[in-house]
Amino acid sequence: MTKNLLFQDPAAFATPLLAVFAVDIATGKDEAPSPALLSTSDTLANAAAPWLGSGEFKAALGETLLLHYPANAKAERLLVIGLGKAKTFSVHDVRKGAGVAVRFAKPRGIFELAIAFPEDKALADEHLETLPCHRTTRALAEGALLADFDIDIYRSDRKDQAIQAVTVIAHEGDKKTQREIQQGFDEGVVLGEAQNFARSLVNEPGNVLTPTELGKRTKAMCESFGIACDVHSIDKILELKMGALAAVTQGSSEPPALIVMRYEPAVAPPEGSPVLALVGKGITFDTGGISIKPADNMDKMKYDMAGAAAMIGAMQAIAQLKPNVRVMSIVCSCENMPDGKAFKPGDVITAMSGKTIEIMNTDAEGRLVLADGLHYAKTLGATHLINAATLTGAIGVALGLLNAGLFSNDDETTQSFLNGYAVAGEKFWRMPCTEDYREQIKSQIADIMNTGGSRYGGAITAAMFLKEFAEETPWIHLDIAGTAWIDDNKPWQSRGPSGVGVRSITEWVRSYAG
Ligand code: BES
Ligand code: ZN
Ligand code: ZN
């Protein structure tokens, strides 16, 4: 896809489809909706005026109104897209709005389009919900790219369905504003592409994306963006005494992969600066192992490497945005299979840290591979840990499918992460992870066991298990099992892998760059 940013009058741009945003400026509870165009172009305002006033369009978020041959504009079609109430809309709605434009065009065979920058200047002050222009263009670029992603790459009848060109058109302003708009746009392209790369990995079936293949694709990405990457085999895993990762992989005939990526800033940060570690759960297929899962929905367990994909996507973005902070990423990748050689309930294994673990359920494998990943990161010098994982079904029960779970042993680190919402727009909700829950993972015969015994608080006991390996190092655990895969199409987004985490994790990393 070609991505362009132009500074000119959007009405003078020739394109098959020009998208322009509108908000509802009605405020009173019983007041009829009153759509207003977020554009200072008189041509566009005049072309849309009769239809905006007709009552057929209310400017609700994602609502569309299509006009053919808008009077005096060069575009063949004008697509008005609602962003909701003027008082409450935000850049996160702009991201969705840009996505609506793309997903409106695609099924209609329109593969080139332009999107007019939403100009809040068009509104009277009392309606104003100001949009910082840097974040706005960033959201436009992200939204357009994310919306172009589809899960149909294996469908022969869906070839050549990708958008070829998107042009964002902003009005000519002063140089400083133009620079901010350009910067936001460039960042948005980086983040949108990184998130789509993560989604493309998650979308792959388990027979294609084996741990070996995940290693290859990660290495290829790292090479093209200039960061270091090592893909280690079982020999290194055994040499490091990663007994937990080794136990999970032993039932599979696919070799595991321990992927280590490193980003070094151009100018070395001073001694004692933070070293961040991004640790990902990369189970390329989770059958549950000997504690096998039911057949229903087991096909979806190809997405059990979405945590790894989020970290790989974030590393792609970091390699391009070049924050001044050291970052490493550790991906522990293998399959979880039942087999004559598989690990079993009742087994006691020794993790890399030396802690012994009683296996209560082989389906609680994610926390095992992460235990070794987190510990390994610390031995490599990590001062701050973050991990992402499709760890528990219980997180979806606790939070629904909108917020992902955040667990941490440190308030300050948590706050740095949650501050990223203003830019990244991904929803995370902090869950308890206090010592009083530790009781539930105590084992009779080993240091800890790999499940909480009861199904109550399943996402929390999983987090407590990880905390045993983060120990005193500031650490965040993101449980994305409920949010990494979306079952239904949205007007701005395809069903399938969401790529959740890429934007927030990247923003968290940038918060340490000073
Ligand atoms: N990969 C699953 C978690 C999962 C469930 C991800 C649903 C996405 C959707 C994980 O390995 C698992 O099986 N967890 C068990 C833990 C239990 C055995 C304590 C679970 O959630 O049931
Ligand atoms: Zn499992
Ligand atoms: Zn799993």
Can you offer a commentary on this structure?
- This protein has 514 residues and is an alpha/beta fold.
- It has 14 helices and 20 strands.
- The chain has helices spanning 42-52, 91-105, 133-148, 175-203, 211-225, 234-239, 243-249, 306-321, 366-379, 394-399, 411-419, 421-424, 458-470, 502-510; strands at residues 2-7, 18-24, 35-37, 64-68, 77-85, 112-116, 165-170, 228-232, 257-263, 275-286, 326-336, 348-350, 356-358, 384-389, 404-408, 428-430, 448-449, 475-479, 485-486, 496-497.
- The strands form 4 sheets. It has an 8-stranded mixed beta sheet, with helices on both faces.
- β10 (275-286), α8 (306-321) and β11 form a beta-alpha-beta unit.
- It starts with a strand and ends with a helix.
- One zinc ion (ZN) binds next to β10.
- One zinc ion binds next to β10.
User: What is the share of helical residues?
Assistant: 25-40%
| Structural classification | alpha/beta
Taken together, the total number of domains comes to 2
| CATH domain class of the largest domain | Alpha Beta
| Count of beta strands | 20
Bound molecules: ligand BES, zinc ion
Question: What is the CATH superfamily label of the largest domain?
Answer: Zn peptidases
What's the CATH topology label of the largest domain? Aminopeptidase
Largest sheet geometry: 8 strands, mixed
User: Shape from CA axes?
Assistant: elongated
What CATH architecture of the largest domain would you give? 3-Layer(aba) Sandwich
Catalogue the unreliable spans. none
**Between the first and last Cα atoms, what is the distance in angstroms?**
33 Å
Rounded average pLDDT: 96
Radius of gyration: 24 Å
Bin the strand percentage: 15-25%
Task: Count the DSSP helices.
Answer: 14
Spatial strand order of the main sheet: 8-9-11-10-14-18-15-16
